[in-house]
Amino acid sequence: MKITLVRGDITGQEVDAVVNAANSSLLGGGGVDGAIHRRGGPEILDACRRLRAAHYGGGLPTGQAVATPAGRLPARWVIHTVGPVHSAAEDRSALLASCYRESLRTADELGVSSIAFPAVSAGIYGWPVDDAARIAVTTVASTPTTVEDVRFVLFTEEAYTAFEQALKALGG
Ligand code: AR6
């Protein structure tokens, strides 16, 4: 597996699957979730609504992932995952790692060979970006998968630098 870092907007990535940092309602929100729904158009929300009705009436649990078509995005799939809100009182890093593992498992089921991840939980959900980057990179690098091309697409300079450091620490 090849891991690369990209600075920019994930909605422009030409990959098989784009990962969305969603919330458990699956009905959209701000941040990267808002950007994906805006650029991808209503097909994504329609698919999310159907998934909710069929399987996730109580919401998609934190740490899990589910796929929909990607609408007008230059990708085939959006894999929606729900990151944990950061807590100073409780260690929720296993849930954040689960987002990356479950997204890759979903990608494997779909036969995806290229995937773009944002820095899940590192925005509105308040995760310190250095820690979010370390968890993202170590989890992806240690998860068995048939995905060949993994890109982390970082919206801010700060996030890009954090992921660079995390990859370096991994020896990559
Ligand atoms: N492309 C790539 N990264 C982006 C983009 C983009 N277009 N826009 C923002 N980011 P966030 P969370 C970065 O807040 O913390 C939503 O309302 C951003 O700079 O999108 O998991 C959902 O509905 C940050 O580094 O996701 C949930 O309610 C990273 O993406 C909640 O926010 C994640 O920030 C999820 O919060």
From TrEMBL:
This is O-acetyl-ADP-ribose deacetylase. PANTHER family: GANGLIOSIDE INDUCED DIFFERENTIATION ASSOCIATED PROTEIN 2-RELATED, MACRO DOMAIN-CONTAINING PROTEIN. The lineage of its organism: Bacteria, Bacillati, Actinomycetota, Actinomycetes, Streptosporangiales. Residues 1-171 form the Macro domain. Pfam families: Macro (PF01661). InterPro entries: Macro_dom (IPR002589), Macro_dom-like (IPR043472).
